[in-house]
Amino acid sequence: MKYADVAVKCPSYSPFCYAIPPHLNVHVGQAVWVPFGSRIVQGIVVQLGEIPSVNVVKEIDDVATGYPLLSATQVELAQWISRQYLASLFDAMALMLPPGFERKLASYFHLSGDQSGLSLLTPEQAQILHFIEERGRVGLKELEKKLGASKAGRITDKLVDLGLVVRFSELEKARVEPKVIPYIKLVASKDDIASEIARLKTTRAY
């Protein structure tokens, strides 16, 4: 198995070691999703190796981009900036990342179809379950606005534990959309173009 040192967004000067699952093709400078505490966060691959730098490692969850965002030279420059100016490694890399790169996983809920735990719900929990049923799916952020972060977390955790709803994650929408520049190109041959220019020169304008 191969391993990758990954810089994640936290106040650390050093990357964290993760195992690369056999089905993933990972390169230096590539953005990946990794487990970090109880969350799944984005990180940038700093280095690849055959031997882990720690005894216990978690696996990379998935790749965030199918190609490297930073070259090996840029990764080395970010490491130098981190050492020289005592900045976190991820922040040093972020200086060279495309605008709007960083995205988060947002949590959503939908009904599971299992109703065996309905009798165990409080009135408020039943109300939220009905709200999810009416909407089809509801984001955690929407529930946090409605109930407050703490209460939304407690109620959704209970609904998930009872098997009444399913929690799933999706990428948040990118904050910056790619800039599209339109181009045009000639499709006629050089001879046809020259002939048309000559014809237009002799054409009288009215």
TrEMBL record:
<dbReference type="InterPro" id="IPR041222">
    <property type="entry name" value="PriA_3primeBD"/>
</dbReference>
<dbReference type="GO" id="GO:0005524">
    <property type="term" value="F:ATP binding"/>
</dbReference>
<dbReference type="InterPro" id="IPR042115">
    <property type="entry name" value="PriA_3primeBD_sf"/>
</dbReference>
<dbReference type="GO" id="GO:0006270">
    <property type="term" value="P:DNA replication initiation"/>
</dbReference>
<keyword id="KW-0067">ATP-binding</keyword>
<dbReference type="InterPro" id="IPR036390">
    <property type="entry name" value="WH_DNA-bd_sf"/>
</dbReference>
<dbReference type="GO" id="GO:0006302">
    <property type="term" value="P:double-strand break repair"/>
</dbReference>
<keyword id="KW-0547">Nucleotide-binding</keyword>
<dbReference type="GO" id="GO:0003677">
    <property type="term" value="F:DNA binding"/>
</dbReference>
<feature type="domain" description="Primosomal protein N' 3' DNA-binding">
    <location>
        <begin position="5"/>
        <end position="98"/>
    </location>
</feature>
<dbReference type="GO" id="GO:0006310">
    <property type="term" value="P:DNA recombination"/>
</dbReference>
<dbReference type="Pfam" id="PF17764">
    <property type="entry name" value="PriA_3primeBD"/>
</dbReference>
<keyword id="KW-0238">DNA-binding</keyword>
<dbReference type="InterPro" id="IPR036388">
    <property type="entry name" value="WH-like_DNA-bd_sf"/>
</dbReference>
<dbReference type="GO" id="GO:0043138">
    <property type="term" value="F:3'-5' DNA helicase activity"/>
</dbReference>
<protein>
    <recommendedName>
        <fullName>Primosomal protein N' 3' DNA-binding domain-containing protein</fullName>
    </recommendedName>
</protein>
